[in-house]
Design brief:
Length: 338
Amino acid sequence: MGRRLLWRLLLCFLAAVGAEPRRASVVASSALHPTAPLQKANTLRIDATKHVRRLLRSDAARHLIAGATAGVVSNTIVAPLDIVRLNLMVSKQQTNALKVATKIVADGGFFALWQGNLADVIRTIPASAVRFYSFAVYKATLPAYLALACITAPAVTSVLAGGFAGMTAMALLFPLETVRTQMATNGALNGISMLAFTRGLVAQNGLHGLYRGLPASLISVMPYFGVRFGVYDILRRYHIAVTGSEIVPSKFSAAYGFAAGFSASGLTFPMEVVRRRAMVGAAGSNLFKAVPAIIRAEGIAGLYKGYAINVVKVAPASAITFFTYETVRKQLDSFANG
């Protein structure tokens, strides 16, 4: 009896050992190498870092990422000022920024000041990315063509490159610009989503309604972004010439961006008023007809309605944009070459 019991126990032991040899091996291996999972995770992280560095070695990728980040940060910070600015620009009533802001908050709550910001961010990510990348491309290619006309001044290249970059982004992403403007001026009272608002806009005006005001917009953004990018690039190039260093400190990037935004806003604001009104159907899209019509109805002051709040918004936004772009670009350059 005892022998039989001992034999059965031996058979059970041998069966158990034979049935799970791999499991025992895994347990033993894990016990001997407790850091194996950690080593695998580190290997994956190193591989991912290599892939990202390989991607960022492309100059285009660094321009696009830095430009998109700059646009998102800047637009989100100054969104409330932009809402007030847009409502002032399209209004035909005599009012001021404080009254407009109070009415927006009273009708839609505090967060109504960010109404349409999602549409703006969705528009800004590709728009800002395209603008900064296009500016770099145009600045690199235009000198050869300008030389044929005996134009060699770097300032001319900077201004034209900025203008063409603004037009390129505007032409590609104009429907999002229309939705954002319409939501900021009409949607704050309704509290509806961007998708629902866009569907209603298309249902009411057709798909072509998303392109209302495109000619006026292209005409206005050419000088605006020409001055904005041009002034910034001229000041930055002057800084490098004076200091003899290719590295421009962040505080100077912000200061030059502020000056660029202030200059661009002051020189092109009447065209901005016309294009915004055209987008919401409050004025014709023909710039040469719309300007006299506004002057007859509201006087010269009508072309500068909302100018004060515009400067308060545009100049800091430009400073934040260029500061963020240069900061992110430096980090990406450092990471790509690390």
